Structures are given as C-alpha cells and as structure tokens.
UniProtKB/TrEMBL annotation:
It comes from the Bacteria. It comes from Streptomyces narbonensis. SUPFAM superfamilies: RmlC-like cupins. This is HutD family protein. InterPro entries: RmlC-like_jellyroll (IPR014710), RmlC_Cupin_sf (IPR011051), Uncharacterised_HutD/Ves (IPR010282).
Length: 189
C-alpha cells in the first residue's frame, strides 16, 4: 500500500484559477489518458468545472460549507454533508457555487469502459479485493493500514494498484469515532 498525507501532496492551480488539486494517484502514472485518478481539490471560488469526456466522477465533500453543482436540465445538487459521495458523468458542463466559501473535496475519476468506482463512507475494516485498485481517505478517528503500517489520522490515507500481488492487508479502525471514505476501483466489465 502507498501512504499519503494531503498536506504533503503538491498543489497545482486549476487553469481557470478557481481552485487547486492535489493528486493522490493516477494510473497509469503520468499518463493523461488515465484509467483512474484520485485527488483532493480545494474549490476556492464559484465557476465552471472542467469537462472530462468519457470519464465518470465521484465527488465527496471533505471540509467547508458545501458546493452546489448544477447542470441545467440534468441536476442541481448541493453537497453539504461531509462524507456523502455524489457520482456524475464527467461529460457534463457543470457550474460550481460555494454558498459558504471555499471547500475541499475528494475527487475520484474513472475512464468509462475501462474502470468503475464505488465510493462509500465506512466505519469498519476495509479488505482490498484481489484484482482491484482502491483508495482509503480518513475522515475521522484513527486507522491502521496493514499489520505494520502507520497509524492514519484525518487527512491521511492509503491507495493500492489492482496488480499488487499482496495489497498489504486490511485497513482497520483503531478508535470508536473512526470513519473513512473507500473508493473501490474495479476493471470494467
């Protein structure tokens, strides 16, 4: 498993200046034609979201007062509860509005036809399924990745590739207030 701490990931400015992105992982690495990508975005002002044709996205609020995503005639959704995933097509031209100021989100993107993703809030043990990739992001409490892994606090997590021979064991909660987001990323079809 690969460990990460959001605060040590390099932040890159969006082309439209509306925020920054900290990439957790992209597979294949360094390839603009990714099969899947996980990142943390800090949305700093109202404005358009970039379209990603052929990509399915899941956005989950991590911090802040929320973000309203709108696509006229398709949906108008206010993400106001931290840890509640929202899936949508990256083909759509979206606008984002920040009713309470800047916010932080987890962004999982998968290339349609190659991979699928299911993102859920978990409070119990996560055992990486064989042949699948994944990301666990700690929302609250303390967690441990594998039997010898470091203790993970909020803002930290782990990710693994589908071809890992042994993903390193389960990610387990260590405290009663433990909660995390788990993105289970599987090959399509």
């Amino acid at each position: 498993m690969h460990h990460f701490d959001v605060e040590t990931l390099t932040a890159g400015q969006w082309l439209n200046g509306g925020g920054t992105t900290r990439q957790i992982a992209s597979r294949p690495a360094g390839d603009g034609d990714f099969s899947w990508r996980a990142s943390i975005a800090d949305i700093e002002r109202d404005g358009p979201f970039s379209a990603f044709p052929g990509v399915d996205r899941t956005l989950t609020l991590l911090a802040g007062d929320g973000v309203r995503l709108t696509c006229p005639g398709v949906f108008d959704r206010l993400l106001e509860r931290a840890g509640e995933p929202f899936a949508f097509s990256g083909d759509l031209a979206l606008d984002a509005e920040l009713p309470g100021g800047s916010c932080r989100v987890l962004n999982i993107m998968v290339r349609r036809g190659r991979t699928t993703a299911r993102v859920e809030r978990v409070t119990g043990r996560v055992a990486p399924p064989a042949g699948r990739s994944g990301v666990v992001y700690v929302l609250g409490g303390r967690w441990q990745a594998g039997t010898d892994g470091p203790v993970l606090a909020p803002g930290r997590g782990v990710w693994w590739d589908e071809d890992a021979l042994a993903p390193g064991g389960a990610v387990v909660p260590l405290s009663p207030d433990a909660s995390a987001l788990w993105a289970d990323i599987a090959p399509a079809g």
